[in-house]
Structure prediction request, 618 residues.
Amino acid sequence: MSKVRAFAPATVANMGCGFDIMGMTLDGVGDVVSVEVKEGDGLRIENRTEVELPDDIEKNVITPAVRALMEAFGEKRQVDVTIERKISPGSGIGSSAASSAAAVYALNEALGRPFADERLVEFAMEGEKLISGGTPHADNVGPSLLGGVVLLRGYEPLDIVRLPVPDNFCCSVAHPAIMVSTRMAREVLPKDIPLRTAVKQWGNVAGLVAGLSLKDVNLVGRAMCDVVVEPYRKQFIPGFDALREKVLAAGALAFNISGAGPSVFTLSSDMDVAARVGEIMCEHFATEGVGSDIYVCKVSNVGARVLND
Amino acid sequence: MSKVRAFAPATVANMGCGFDIMGMTLDGVGDVVSVEVKEGDGLRIENRTEVELPDDIEKNVITPAVRALMEAFGEKRQVDVTIERKISPGSGIGSSAASSAAAVYALNEALGRPFADERLVEFAMEGEKLISGGTPHADNVGPSLLGGVVLLRGYEPLDIVRLPVPDNFCCSVAHPAIMVSTRMAREVLPKDIPLRTAVKQWGNVAGLVAGLSLKDVNLVGRAMCDVVVEPYRKQFIPGFDALREKVLAAGALAFNISGAGPSVFTLSSDMDVAARVGEIMCEHFATEGVGSDIYVCKVSNVGARVLND
Prediction:
């Protein structure tokens, strides 16, 4: 019998231009899950948070993630999962990913670490598959497990590249109290895009990765710009363009939609700026008649980890 | 009166996935141009090579590049340009770019270096504008002037990022004796592409830049893969798919079209492999009834430079 508590951080997928291929890790915000492994064969999930989650474990993202790991492990065990802390679902900062990531991370530890962290990404992706209707994504589970910026070069086979983030990357995230389902956010996207627009986007993707490598926060800021997806999704976010102007004027280096939204985030190179920008975003949504949760934190190089009691 | 001889290297634009935003510098292949600056006001261009070039200087790429520099310089001079060595035009390894780059580099030196190298890229781009029918590109002039891999994050304003290349990057280029005009190579491209395909491409672009930064030649090889442009342009190159199979079997890490073609190139991490691959490419085109020029060289971190007599 072995019990492990793990934390897995919230994440910002897409990072502006890197739609579907990139995500980054937030510091201090995330899910806490404990996993107990016993003799037997089964899976129980208990939700001890105030967040409402489906009672049916077949609808919980943790289930397919845990089952994928146990199948690869090849021996039967009774696995008891307790969700102790949970980011609000639909927040756009990788809520489901943090749950799957924390669960597989804790389970792997409880089993004596049979799998490398990169392999855990594949298991956690099974949870993402459940909510995305079959398409596996790793742009949230990747950074939640591995930390830093995680790049998915390709999915067939899965090619994960981890890039460290410079120390001074600060993030302000606003989660406005609006419901935008991932499905809705996907359906609004065009099937085809102009080649000219695609070239602009991959110029920015290249600039973003180069900026991270060269630790050039200004280059990262210039490159964190989405000409493909944002034009279609910003309609869901009240006063999007006006808010961008306000946060850039306050010193933020970039302003984008986090994941499929409705959360938005800014990048800054200074915690004071990040804090001020957080206030501006909160005021903005209040003026629009929308409440919001604000997170101001560093971008972290540390992903999922064991919590000692 | 001041006279300077300069060399500017050949370059491989696009590098597979980086269509229109990236190029790399070859070692040892390139153009040699000398520039003499005297009192007066005018431009003369003399071609001392065996390559046929237009007699009308208005049709020579060097002319708009030199004029752009002189206009920014703001004083009048008589500029006499002599082309001493020239890569074949239409080779797909940045022939026109090497001429413009060598000319502006030599001219800047002859004037006492009034401009930084990055500024020279803007002048040399005027030459590219002449041959592309108005669209300025820097994916050949950039690396030819600056060396290494040059990334064009954006054009408005021009945002140039230089990335150093690891020492062991070797390139084999084959220039088959086929005429493919840049115009023809452009016209065959679709105006729109599927968003799914674009995402794959920018995943590879991100992987390519990450691989360069992490000095991971295998990642660079995996990422140097073009799912957008190659499907339309490979028809111009006899036996393209069969040749790819042969060079990859011989140890090359990637095989792609150089620039708009018809040249093709491979990346290897070893000069012996690069040499063997060069032979395979030469044999391949011979079997197809097409002669070819083969270049086997390192990828270089050095761009345009002064040649001492």
